[in-house]
Amino acid sequence: MFQAEAPAEPAIAAETATESANQVTSGFSEFLSRASDGDFSADTWMLFWESVGQPVLLAIVLIIVVFLAAGWARKIVRKAVTKAGVEETLARFLSNLGRYAVLIAGGVAILGTLGIETTSFAAILAAVGFAIGMAMSGTLGNVASGVMLLLFRPMKVGDVVSAGGVTGKVYEIGLFATVFDTPDNRRIIVPNSSIFDGTIENVSFHDTRRVDVAVGTDYNADIDQTRQILLNTAKACTDVLADPAPAVALSELGGSSIDWTVKVWVNAGDFWAVKDQLTRDVKYALDEANIGIPYPQMDVHIDGQVTRA
């Protein structure tokens, strides 16, 4: 009976990497030995070129190629996943992941070119990985939070959210941080852990929103008349949805006014325009009906006589 032998490719690759490392190390040591003896002949410089110059030059070329390849990989992955119908948020994440994968693979290849044994280097990385992980616990937490944001999808690119102390439109959810663009066109970068560990308010998740306009009226005004005026004003406002119907609520009897809340439903994109228009219309409607809107006042009483100079 014949026993199948395991493939020898890994052993051959490891042996080749070891020989390359030994050649670079021994060649450089020989160059230093000759240079210390004052031997700067052509053979010495040729030895330096073959042992150090060529690997360094090749490493520089590989660095340029790796960065170019990483950029191409990002574009190719982005185009492929977009064509496959993947949502924008996940598409950006996968394209960045492809870029990092090429950079890591290229880094290993460059180390091998410089004569560093990648097998032993991987072992060293594994040995110090725990220490690095402890030192970068916050960074790794951001990565984990970014993955969770992509899995649970509480928001996506283009949504307007309030999270991590910031309110703005989501531009990108990355491995370490999420990028927001604020309404006044500022770009804010928030660590993913700050977002995932807190409350996320997705303002644009639903297609419709409710606009609330608060207003106070004089105690002398008739309550039923005031309610009807406010309701008619709400119904007449442009871009207000008929279903759910506009409503007027008597909020409370305040210290100096009767407080009302006018509530209308609108499409999410019309929220601020309708809020502005409805506030204006409510003010004009109350003025036309001679219903006052109280405001804080201060009465000053002076005891005694006032002497003019």
What's the topology here?
Elements: H1 9-36, H2 42-83, H3 88-113, H4 118-135, H5 137-152, E1 160-163, E2 166-173, E3 177-181, E4 187-191, H6 192-196, E5 201-202, E6 208-217, H7 223-236, E7 247-253, E8 258-267, H8 271-288
Antiparallel strand pairs: 1-2, 1-5, 2-3, 3-4, 6-8, 7-8
Helix pairs in contact: 1-2, 2-3, 7-8
Please explain how this structure is put together:
The strands form two sheets. Strands 4-3-2-1-5 form a five-stranded antiparallel beta sheet. It has a three-stranded antiparallel beta sheet with strand order 6-8-7, covered by helices on one side. The N terminus is likely disordered. 54% of the residues lie in helices and 17% in strands. It has 309 residues and is α+β, with helices and mostly antiparallel strands. The protein has three domains: 119 residues, Helix Hairpins (Orthogonal Bundle); 63 residues, SH3 type barrels, CATH 2.30.30.60; 81 residues, Alpha-Beta Plaits, CATH 3.30.70.100. It contains eight helices and eight strands; from the N terminus they run αααααββββαββαββα. The protein is elongated.
- What is the number of beta strands? 8
Q: How much β-strand is present in the residues?
A: 15-25%
Number of helices: 8
Helix content: 40-55%
Instruction: Note the gap between the termini.
Output: 129 Å
Query: So what's the overall shape?
Result: elongated
Mean pLDDT: 79
Q: Which secondary-structure class do the elements indicate?
A: alpha+beta
The Cα radius of gyration reads 35 Å
- Poorly predicted regions are 1-18
